[in-house]
Structure formats: C-alpha cells, structure tokens
Amino acid sequence: MENPTPLSEVQKVALDNLTASLGPEYVEFLVSQGPEVLNARVKSFMQYEATLLGQVQDQIASAMPTRYVSVPDEEAKPRPFRVEVKNYSCKEGENLILWIREIEMAMRSGLITLDHQQVSLAISKLDGRAREWALTCSTSVDMAFPTWESLKSQLVQVFSPPNQAYRVRSRFLSTRQGKNELSDYVQELRTLMAAMQSDPLPEAVHVTIFMEGLRTGIARTEVFRVPPLRLKRL
C-alpha cells in the first residue's frame, strides 16, 4: 500500500503489524485522515507492542527459578521510610479519603503497626477544627480512639459532607472526558472510585462509565474494539 507520509524503518514495521492486526481498510482510513493522525496511531501502536513485549518478558522472568542469596540479618530487615503527609483541617477543597490513604501509606512505609502509634501519627497530621475535635472527644485519646480503624471511621462519619456517598456516586456516573486529556479523565474516575471505597460500584459499571464518557477519537475506537476488563488497569 502506498504511504504518502514519510516514516522511519521502525515505524514502517509497526505500520505493517498494524495492517496485519486491524486490516488494510482501517489503515487506509488512517492515511486518509492525514499525516498527524497516522503518525499518532502508529506511535500508539508501537507503545502498545512495547507494553506487550514487556509483559511477556516479565512472565518469562517470573517463570525462571529464583536464585536465593544469603543476606545478613541486619540487611534483610526492612527499614522504615518516612513519607510526608499534609495536615487535614476539614477546609473546603480538602479530600478526606485521599488524606486517609496517605496516612495509611505513611504507616506502612514507616513500619508503624501498634495501635497507639498509628492513632498518634494520624492525630499529629490533623489541624484546625479536625484536630480540636480529635483531642476533645473524650477524657483521653486512648479511650476515644483505641485503634486507627475507630479513628478513621469516626473521621469519615463526622467530617464527610452530608449525602457524600450519593454526591460522589452521582458525580461518577455523570463524568465525561470532554476536553480533558485521557490521563486526566482516568485519574478523575479513580479519585471518585477511591471516595466510594466503603460502598463500591461493580467493576462492570466502572468500565461502562469510562467507555461511555470517552470523547470520539482514536482512544474511543480502540477501547470499543477491545474493551478493558478492569478500569484500575488503565
């Protein structure tokens, strides 16, 4: 097939593979859309092939027998790693669910496993009205919050906006890509999914909303050709 757009040798190979996968009619359609569309689709297909190759290499590597090397006890022990977490003060625009995830990430990285240590870390990262509430809930912090799970559940109950679950679910179901980049659109859906963690929607609903919200273009065509099984893998 004659190609009016100058391509490198690597791109020509990718174009041949694309033709074999999707058929010459689809490639002719891309050519008719102009050089920019063709080059963009070829580049996307090359990235797709590279990802598949990486997955195959990972599978081969994981199938190979593991060689164990003796390591001194001191080196084998995990070391705590400090993660910075911004304070939560219940101000407009702050996301309590994401703050909770950051706190839990800091606990894992810092190897903080005891209940009172986890509660102390979380309260130290509260500010303003939220900190005042935590320190005055009872005669002592230990009595009010014996575990991190108890503190977390009460934080969500007290500081989540009214009808939060309904608002988040409604926003998720109405989310569309619009003029946003694909990566920004996916991240917005992921943030809303995180906010629904306590009462999540089925995975099939996640995928359906993602596909229906895509604007017309190459990404939408590709997704509808091979629908993703899970939104979290995108």
Can you walk me through this structure?
It comes from Peronospora matthiolae. This is Retrotransposon gag domain-containing protein. It holds the Pfam family Retrotrans_gag. By secondary structure, the protein is an all-alpha fold. It has three domains: 52 residues, no CATH class; 82 residues; 70 residues, no CATH class. Helix content is 63%, strand content 0%. It has 13 helices and no strands. Helix 1 packs across helix 2. The chain starts with 8 loop residues before the first helix and ends in a 9-residue tail after the last helix.
Q: What structural keywords apply?
A:
234 residues, mainly alpha, 13 helices, 0% strand, elongated, Retrotrans_gag_dom, Retrotransposon gag domain-containing protein
β-strand amount: under 5%
Query: What integer value in Å does the Rg equal?
Result: 25 Å
Helix content: 55-70%
Query: Could you tell me the mean pLDDT?
Result: 79
Q: Which sheet architecture does the biggest sheet show?
A: none
How many β-strand runs? Answer: 0
Report a brief summary of the structure.
The chain is mostly helical and about 230 residues long.
